[in-house]
Amino acid sequence: MNNNDIYKQVGYDLVISQIPENSKVLDLGCGDGELLSRLIQKKRIQGFGVEISESGLRQCVEKGLYCYQSDIDEGLSDYKDNAFNYVILNQTIQSTKMPEYVLKETMRVAEFAIVSFPNFAHYTTRLSLLLGGLMPKTKVLPFEWYNSPNIHLLTIRDFVNTCKKFNFHIKKSINFSYTSNGKIKIINSFPNIFAQYGFFILDGTK
Fold first, then answer.
1. Nearest to 151 by CA among 94, 73, 90, 68
2. How far, in Å, CA of 206 to CA of 166, rounded?
3. What DSSP assignment string belongs to the chain?
4. pLDDT tens digit string along 130-178?
5. CA nearest 139: which of 6, 1, 30?
6. How many other β-carbons are positioned within 10 Å of the β-carbon of residue 85?
7. CA geometry: angle at 202 spanning 198 and 203, to 5°?
8. pLDDT on residue 7
9. Half-sphere exposure of 53 toward its Cβ, with a 13 Å CA cutoff?
């Protein structure tokens, strides 16, 4: 399993815990389909995936998942308004070319959206840039500047401001870090500094 695969799997259990049973779910940038597969097993969802890579699509098909190959930067025109109970953007939005458009399309087709991303304002990233003078390379951002899938890095504060600007209603935020033993630790105080990942549930029914 490469770094990008591990990176995509961040917070799977947290995502699963937030989705009710029997929901209709669309996973954008679903990778190998592992999250969808777990949701089907644990929450009995009606699951659909969109993935741009051929390898990811192949693995989804091998798992028996409904997934089609597409670039979400081109929109979700195949889907009607409020077509899904939940749309997932798990560690995906920062790798899109047009995140604003992707978010708007997500909120168009979703009653609720789960959006998670690495927080570029985490204190280790700040220190790495300040002291090293190089693009940060940390456990959260393990890539070199030239091969990183992240082309629109953002912070938790950036995302909150974006939601205010476009009137996306934040239903819940559960910003978190990982402990040394691999457990999720919820960060309630100063998450823009101390949380490694931003995690938001947006309410498209408001």
1. 94
2. 13
3. --HHHHHHTTTHHHHHHHS-TT-EEEEET-TTSHHHHHHHHHH--EEEEEE--HHHHHHHHHTT--EEE--GGG--TTS-TT-EEEEEEES-GGG-S-HHHHHHHHHHHEEEEEEEEEBTTSHHHHHHHHHH-S----SSS-S-TTT-S-SS-B-HHHHHHHHHHTT-EEEEE--EEE-TTS-EEE--SSHHHH-SEEEEEEETT-
4. 999 988 888 788 888 888 888 999 999 999 999 999 999 999 999 999 8
5. 6
6. 17
7. 165
8. 53
9. 12
What is the rounded CA–CA span in Å between residue 141 and residue 155? 13
How many Å apart are CA 110 and CA 77, to the nearest integer? Answer: 13
Cα gap 191→164, rounded to integer Å = 18
Q: What is the mean pLDDT of each run of 10 residues along the chain (206 residues)?
A: 54 94 97 95 97 94 94 93 97 95 97 96 93 86 87 96 97 91 88 96 92
Q: Is the pTM of this model over 0.85?
A: yes
How far apart (Å, rounded) are the C-alpha atoms in residues 74 and 68?
Answer: 14
> How does pLDDT run across 16-25, given as a tens digit for each residue?
999 999 999 9
Q: Are 120 and 61 in contact (CB under 8 A)?
A: no
Q: Nearest 5°: phi and psi at 178?
A: -105, 140
